[in-house]
Amino acid sequence: MDVSNAISGGEFQNVVMAAHAHVTLASGGGPVGLPDLPELPPVPQGFTGREAELAELLALLDPEAVSAEPVLVASVAGLGGVGKTTLALATAHAALDRARFAHALFVDLRGYDDSPVAPGQVLDTLLRALGIPPAELPPDDGGRAALLRSRLRTAGGLGTLIVADNASTADQVRHLRPGPGPHRLLVTSRHTLSALDATLVDLDVLTPDGAVDLIARRLRTARRRPERITDDSTDALRLAGLCGHLPLALALVATELVQDPHLALTELADELSEEGGRLERIDGLSDGQRPVRLALDRSRRRLDPAQTELLDLLALAPGPDISTAAAAALTANSPREARRRLAGLAATGLLRQSPEGGRWSMHDLVREYAAGHARAAGDRYAPHLRALLAHYADEFERAHLGPDADGYPGAEDVGWVSDECSNLIEAAQLAEATGEWATAFRIGKLLASYGPLYGDQERLETTTLMLRVARRLDDPDREGEAWHDRGLALRALNRRVEAAEALRSALRLWSGHPAFCVVAWFNLGQTLSELGEFPTYGGRVEPDGGVDEPPGETWGIPEPMWRFAEAVRVHEEWRAADSRGGDEPEPAAGPQRTGEETGSA
């Protein structure tokens, strides 16, 4: 075997055994300065809103920080386009400005491109930048990693910060981990890279104010009427919200405003709000490059088939977020397995877990992107959605009945309804849209009982949905329930005349159901009484039950609205019906069942 060793200068502590070993050590054992290194890329224009994260990274990577376990590697993780590279470059420049490091090296690993940079290529790039001749580069990754650590160690003085941007796997950067000393590694990735043994920093989208400031800074730099932001702060916040506060999307909007200095914020916001895909409209501002979709495409390609299916299913699920239990129903998995899969998808940056845990959500643009892929699959996911809707209906009924199934929900059950309220509203709408009318009615009926949790106007809209699906089911009893709940919702909105009409419709449809009519008569009586309730009342109820009605107009309310006599009559009829076991009187004529709801939502 041909064995050759080329070793020059330095102090020898380890035995080197290899077919070909190329080791360069410091001459005379002293420090060897590094050559002139390439300059860092500049911080992209408009860096803002990351003061807290910048301070955190500077503190973590400070070589002089006193700690029993100093941070050698920090990894910034987040969605594509969220600004990880910008933050890393800002950190590196700030660290150099503060003399924390003598040098900083930047390498783009292109982890989400079709051809990511291989670990050996990364080492080769860095060693060449540090002045190692190509002929002296070891042939294997382990040898190159050892040479990198040695070269940094023998440089002397302040340390070197290596910024490894856009890594997709821990293997891409594992060999860059520095040894003891003042050197540090800063990694960015869309993945969490939990196998890297790094201190993790999660990067979320900007705050609303930070997002607006990014646009404003771009306009001020370009001197293209930045006063548009201050003059129209409402539409500036609206624009930022339409971009999901994602820096990549915000930059596209800012570019559009720079290119057209007379474009009003409200006009651009209206354009982005039009029916259709918001993602497509935002990408349409980029002259055909579609950078947001491209970033998401690259992330999607890194998913395995199970993760891809999970992403698409979650995008179709109703509501702004989903619990682990609901995700288990959606994916036909156990809660434990569902949580494991959700956590795995969250590690890719495409899914976020709530700070308290147990709930999961997507960025708006990610959801729209994934939903497009899911809809392209036709009816493939329909059984999964039916299972999720059934889960919501079953769990809602369980919570409504309470722990003892006695109709009295406990605090935990009310908490569940509160947490799921937005999802339940959208679940009812999705059930109607997909022809699951019985499920839509079940969820809508229960929602109508919890108006204070989500608003009386929304409750009224829910009863409109109930009316539609009851008629789809051709079920007069359910339609009567819908009219009754609609009456209660209108009454809560102080629309008592319409409420009385709705309750009469319920009574007519419920003929033959004494128990139902007892409740409807009671609520109708209360509603009619309330039509005459005012801060002061000049009339009185006589001992014999008669009503002394004040004549004329009182408190600006015309005399016909003072319907005390009718309220007393209805109340007496309700009591009589109750005592007879529900042999209810015939209700006054109300709206007829015509196939169209009466009263506006």
Question: Could you list some keywords that capture this structure?
Answer:
single chain, 601 residues, alpha/beta, Rossmann fold, Arc Repressor Mutant, subunit A, 4 domains, five-stranded parallel sheet, three-stranded antiparallel sheet, 50% helix, 9% strand, disordered N terminus, disordered C terminus
**What general form does the structure show?**
elongated
Trace the largest sheet across and list its strands: 4-5-6-3-7
Total strands:
12
Q: Kindly report how far apart the N and C termini lie.
A: 89 Å
Structural class: alpha/beta
Number of helices: 24
Please outline the major beta sheet.
5 strands, parallel
In the CATH hierarchy, what is the architecture of the largest domain at level 2?
3-Layer(aba) Sandwich
Which homologous superfamily in CATH is the superfamily of the largest domain?
P-loop containing nucleotide triphosphate hydrolases
Total number of distinct structural domains: 4
Architecture overview:
By secondary structure, this protein is an alpha/beta fold. It folds into four domains: 4-202, Rossmann fold (3-Layer(aba) Sandwich); 208-293, no CATH class; 303-380, Winged helix-like DNA-binding domain superfamily/Winged helix DNA-binding domain (Arc Repressor Mutant, subunit A, Orthogonal Bundle); 455-601, no CATH class. 50% of the residues lie in helices and 9% in strands. The chain has helices at residues 51-60, 84-97, 119-129, 141-153, 208-222, 227-231, 233-242, 247-259, 265-273, 278-283, 291-301, 305-316, 324-331, 335-346, 364-375, 382-401, 411-433, 437-447, 451-454, 456-472, 476-492, 496-509, 514-530, 564-579; strands spanning 4-8, 20-24, 73-77, 101-108, 159-167, 184-189, 199-202, 322-323, 352-353, 359-361, 540-541, 547-548. The strands form four sheets. It has a five-stranded parallel β-sheet, with helices on both faces. The longest helix is centred in the last third of the chain and has 23 residues, at 411-433. The N and C termini lie far apart (89 Å).
